[in-house]
Amino acid sequence: MQYVSTRGAAPRMGFEDVTLAGLASDGGLYVPESWPGFSRDEIAALKGLSYVDTAVAVMRPFVAGALTDEELKGLCETAYGRFSHAAVVPLKQLDHRQWVMELFHGPTLAFKDVALQLLGLLFERFLRDRDTHLTIVGATSGDTGSAAIDAVAGRAKIDIFMLHPKGRVSEVQRRQMTTVLAPNVHNIAIEGSFDDAQALVKAMFAHQSFATRYNIAAVNSINWARLMAQVVYYFYSAVRLGAPDRPVAFSVPTGNFGDVFAGYVASKMGLPVAKLIVATNVNDILHRALSAGDYSVGTVTPTAAPSMDIQVSSNFERLLFDMHGRDGAALAASMRGFEETKKLAIPAAMRGEVEGLFASTRVDADRMALAMRWGQDKAGELLDPHTAIGFAAAQDADLPADVPVVTLATAHPAKFGDAVERATGVRPTLPGRVGNLFEREERYATLPATMEAIEGFVADQVGADA
To answer: What are 102-155's pLDDT values in tens digits?
Structure first.
């Protein structure tokens, strides 16, 4: 399997090099040169498999040439052996057609664990035989940071620097990052928004001399390996609800478009996906882009669903690449215009390429609270704010009556205890495996949102000889 950049100018790479690189050298994102396809019989053969065996089957074509089946299975067994539920991503039924897929049974209680536990092991495996030190730089709106830190804390040949917007993540999210005191973990609270943090990370990758000197790598969903791992749970849940004999719809709370793009990949591989519902909060750039072709940046509004408080969705570029007919030069020109003007118009003909698969919904704070109350009152299920936005969008979806709808439950409700309690009157409790989170020492630096400050901090911590 070879990978190409969405902007067409970076060299083709194999899976190992793409995983270690993260962002392409031309500023684009790596995608497979072509989408692998699964036949109806191959999808049917996934029925009854464990999550690990499903993961091996689904990811096999993407890692071809880099890992054997035995190596991939060993990595998956280690990664998912840390999850607290034997199903890894269990399905729960809410009513006659609505389901939630609980993606929060990993060590940091968020869906990011599903991919990042594996990614940490992939980094370690690929660095094993290299005389190379990896400097991971990432931006987080909440959950990516803690999941990435847990995945690589204490690992040899790796330092991780995680940027989060000061005061704009929940206390649980912050503490899950800042109480990890391993010497290779460096947390940075920037004085700005998540979009500022994400822009700084992309700029560091684009600063070639710095990126090369410190061997900068990515754990954000700009890293293809993360999206690859997320494709698995679409297959795993769909076959349990009748695929390939009937289609299944998914409602995905999203800000950065990575999780829902994984569903798009599953569809391209042959999974019968009836609809991918893109659920946004009031920071609705993705809803505007998909429904009206208006991909223009507004002002970020802080909400009770902070992981969705985003106006620039990095992974949307991967969908735009396919919408541009996989013409990297054309997309590069479009993205240059977007980066200059913060606006991009998507013609109706181009949207028509994917509109049969995607739907989108904007869910405000009141509708989110109503969904949380419905979950508690009607199904005995506490939903975190992000999942509630996905569930509200699922309830409103216009779909055939016989199509089951799976909402991706992206975080444990206790990560957002105040918001859940306000909506439901019930205070969710943190699982015992999180331990004494609120009693642990925190360690992080507060820095201005400037390249000079962030790169200087990285250089000081990693050392001039890296």
So the answer is: 999 999 999 999 999 999 999 999 999 899 899 999 998 778 899 999 999 999
Q: What is the pTM for the complete model shown? A: 0.93
pLDDT recorded at residue 162: 96
* Nearest to 321, CA basis, from 418, 224, 197: 224
Q: Which residues contact 352 (CB under 8 A, 6 or more apart)?
A: none
**Domain segments of the chain: what residues?**
91-109+228-424
Question: What is the CB-side half-sphere exposure of residue 425 using CA atoms within 13 A?
Answer: 5
Q: Which of 6, 3, 2, 1 is nearest to 319 (CA)?
A: 6
20 near 123, Cβ under 8 Å? yes
Q: Which of 395, 200, 173 is nearest to 279 (CA)?
A: 395
> Is CATH 2.40.128.20 correct for 91-109+228-424?
no
Peptide bond into 61 cis (omega under 30): no
Chain segment 358-416, per-residue pLDDT in tens: 999 999 999 999 999 999 999 999 999 999 999 999 999 999 999 999 999 999 999 99
CA dihedral sign, ordered 274, 328, 126, 457: negative
Residues facing 185 on adjacent strands: 160
| Burial of 131 per CB tally in 10 Å (0-12, 13-18, 19+) | exposed
Convert the pLDDT of each residue in 142-172 to its tens digit. 788 999 999 999 998 999 999 999 998 889 8
Instruction: Please name the residues in contact with 42: beta carbons below 8 A apart, sequence gap of 6 or more.
Output: 57, 270
**Residues with a known catalytic role:** 112
d(CA 165, CA 51): 34
Say if CB 82 and CB 147 are below 8 A apart. Answer: no
